[in-house]
Amino acid sequence: MPHLVILYSGNLDRPEAEGGSDMRALCRALADAMLTIHDEGGRQVFPTGGTRVLAFPAAHWAIADGGDAGEAAGMGRDYAFIYLNLRMGRGRSAAVQKRSGGALEAVARQHFAEQLSRRPIGITVQVDEGPEVFDAKISSLHPLFTPLRST
Description:
Strands 2-1-3-4 form a four-stranded mixed beta sheet, with helices on one face. The two termini are 29 Å apart. The protein contains four helices and four strands. It is elongated. By secondary structure, it is an alpha/beta fold.
């Protein structure tokens, strides 16, 4: 159940030349980072077939003071935000949880490095863990990544 849900201000959907961001590239980079994380026993933490990164722009938003402080600082009024929430099933160690959050933070920091240097933008990475009260999974994806076992 490794789902990374991203909520972001819709102004990030503009073309990059106009202060937007390539959110599809960010989603792919985040998924790729998730697939590289291993636990203390060397096992892949997030199953390939279950790894999902979903991004949703907010049609309407209000951020901080609306731009006054950004304008006064010479960075403009065009504030932006991005909130990344990784939801993990129970059972992973605190070290794995922190490593996962750190890996996602590093990808987001790199992706938005140029924007962070020139405009007011807030980035939050949060890792949450179950407990689930109901957890059903139906997938024809997982078999694609499960090695065939010989009998």
